[in-house]
Specification:
By secondary structure, the chain is mainly beta. Strands 7, 8, 11, 12, 13 and 14 form a 6-stranded antiparallel β-sheet that branches. Strands 16, 19, 20, 21 and 22 form a 5-stranded antiparallel β-sheet that branches. It has a 3-stranded antiparallel β-sheet with strand order 1-5-4, with no helix packed on it. It is globular. The relative contact order is 0.12.
């Protein structure tokens, strides 16, 4: 039996259903506990990312969970190493949030300074395989600059920019097509002063427009 399909880059869990009976792929040795008492076959496409957690040598089990696996806490069991834990995983390009689960305790990545949220809702953030860098060459006295737009659901707590050599910058992954965006400088929303392309919005303040070629 066969079925041609298009699969995007990343990790895909799957099973076959043979006369209503669910089975894993007998030709694929890669299987994981799906957290629901059974196993799924897994297929990875594209580039991989190795997640690492240093220390916690006395922990019994450490899991990885994030936006890339639906925050399933019992699926991605990490491997113990001489100095910590690691897991290599196929990721799609883009922005991902994640946490480690050490013996049932959720925690952000202590080695990653980029995060969103606060307290128990704080998640570590990484941009995998960025293909564009937003820049803002002013406001060097600002304390916090964010870039937000249609590419991340206009979130105000993601894509924090970093100041270097007088320029604020944030690398992101943008899919081909049209993207609208703005900067938030110490809480003040503004269009991109270096981009003459903009369009009207519902607030009457306008959004900057960026086109990404395939």
């Amino acid at each position: 039996w066969e079925l041609p399909m298009f699969l995007s880059p990343g990790t895909h869990a799957y099973k076959f259903i043979v006369d209503r009976k669910w089975i894993t792929d007998p030709d694929n040795p890669v299987m994981r506990d799906n957290g629901n008492g059974s196993f799924n076959s897994y297929l990875g496409i594209g580039d991989t990312m190795t997640f690492r957690l240093s220390g916690f040598q006395t922990a019994g089990k450490v899991y990885l969970a994030g936006s890339f696996n639906g925050w399933n806490p019992n699926e991605l069991l990490m491997d113990k190493t001489d100095n910590g834990w690691k897991l290599t995983y196929h990721l799609a390009p883009g922005l991902h949030e994640y946490k480690f689960i050490v013996d049932g305790q959720w925690m952000p990545d202590p080695a990653n300074p980029e995060s969103v949220g606060e307290g128990i809702f704080e998640n570590s953030v990484l941009t995998f395989r960025p293909n564009y860098t937003f820049t803002l060459a002013m406001f060097t006295d600002a304390k916090k600059v964010i870039v937000t737009g249609s590419f991340n659901g206009w979130r105000e707590d993601a894509c924090a920019m970093t100041l270097k050599d007088g320029v604020w910058a944030c690398p992101v992954f943008l899919s081909p097509g049209k993207h609208t965006y703005k900067f938030i400088v110490d809480g003040q929303w503004m269009v991109d002063p270096a981009n003459e392309v903009w369009e009207a919005n519902a607030q009457g303040t306008g959004n900057s427009v960026l086109w990404v070629e395939p």
